[in-house]
Amino acid sequence: GIATRDIGLAIVALGGGRIRPDDRIDHAVGLTRLLPVGAEVRAGEALALVHARTEADAEAAAAAVRSAYTIGASKPSAEKTVLRRILPL
After folding, report:
1. What's the whole-model pTM score?
2. Domain extent for 39
3. b/e code 13-39 from CB counts within 10 Å (16+ = b)
């Protein structure tokens, strides 16, 4: 599985998101090529590509991505993407 909130917080820590509405966003930083849930992954294979301004920021984001992924021997069961629909009254 993937702790998606932790992925989002890693992007915010890089400067690619906001904590407060007036925070500036650095469009040069972030994460790309994130492996999806259920993807087969081998030792040494990248889980994501980190775009950062500094080596320290890149290392912190990489650590956050590593801890956000749960890697097991078997593929996780599929969960429903849409939990419920909210319709107008």
Report:
1. 0.81
2. 4-68
3. bbbbbeeeeeeeeeeebbbeebbeeee
